[in-house]
Amino acid sequence: MGGFEGKVALVTGGGSGIGREAALGFARGGARVVICDVDEAGGNQTVALIGETGSEAIFISADVSKPEQVEAAVAAAVDTFGGLNIVVNNAGIGGEANPTGDYSLEGWHKVIDINLNGVFYGMRYGIPAILASGGGSIVNVSSILGLVGWATAPAYVAAKHAVSGLTKAAATEYAQQGIRVNSVHPGFIETPLLTKAGITPGTDGYNFIASKHAMNRLGLADEVASLIVWLASDEASFVTGSQMAVDGGYTCQ
Which of 156, 174, 206, 250 is catalytic? Predict the structure, then answer.
């Protein structure tokens, strides 16, 4: 998909998985891209891959739970490329697996700080920069667990549901100021996040999770990235405040 010539996109969690594929999608469309991640090696690899597309990118080491680091990343985008048009708030973690009554306070705060507060910081500092650049789009990566529940993941479920509400509030606030804000709700996707949790093809855990989707498989990162890129494009010019599932039929059952 083209149409991003002259645009600048910032992608958090762009060092791997969905974030990397989205960043590559923007670059192939002509955008210059700022990659934010705590994974320096992964972030720089994404920058190198973007270079192969003929576009430009920079890597900024940023922990999205730290507002000053997100603010600095936005400033770097403006200073390096002259503005900011697109923000994809994608960085996130799974967190510990425990029922609500046993969930650790440390675990709760860590998930909320990254998965919810990190999205807010991306919007808090990204919106003024987008407005100054004449408008654009924000895509917040939530989850199917921002639409339904999941036992032993209270912090993750709470944060992802809250991202949906934050998205709707901001969409309403900026709809007439040239900023569209939408949330994407992936099903279980084959990414390093699941690999680290031991959910790999052929394992019982993988097969169980796959069976929860009507298609009986997990999704791929580029299948989510394609939706993110479309939402940020002019082809989605009348789409704002939407919750868009890309879940292989998980939530339709």
Answer: 156
CB contact at 8 A, 189 and 221: yes
Q: Rounded to whole angstroms, how far apart are CA atoms 233 and 31?
A: 11
Q: What is the pLDDT of residues 13-28, one digit of tens each?
A: 999 999 999 999 999 9
Number of CB atoms found within 10 A of residue 158's CB:
19
Whether 3 maps to a domain, the answer reads no
**Would you say the pTM of this structure is higher than 0.90?**
yes
Q: Domain span at residue 59? A: 8-252
- Radius of gyration (C-alpha) of the chain in whole angstroms: 17
In total, how many domains does the chain have? 1
Helix (H, G, I), strand (E, B) or coil at 70: helix
Using CB atoms within 10 Å of the CB of residue 177, give its burial: 0 to 12 exposed, 13 to 18 middle, 19+ buried.
Answer: exposed
Q: Let me know if 121 is a catalytic residue.
A: no
Q: Do 85 and 8 meet the contact criterion of CB atoms below 8 Å apart?
A: yes
In a domain, 2, yes or no: no
Tell me if 144 is assigned to some domain.
yes
The domain spanning residue 16 has which CATH number?
3.40.50.720
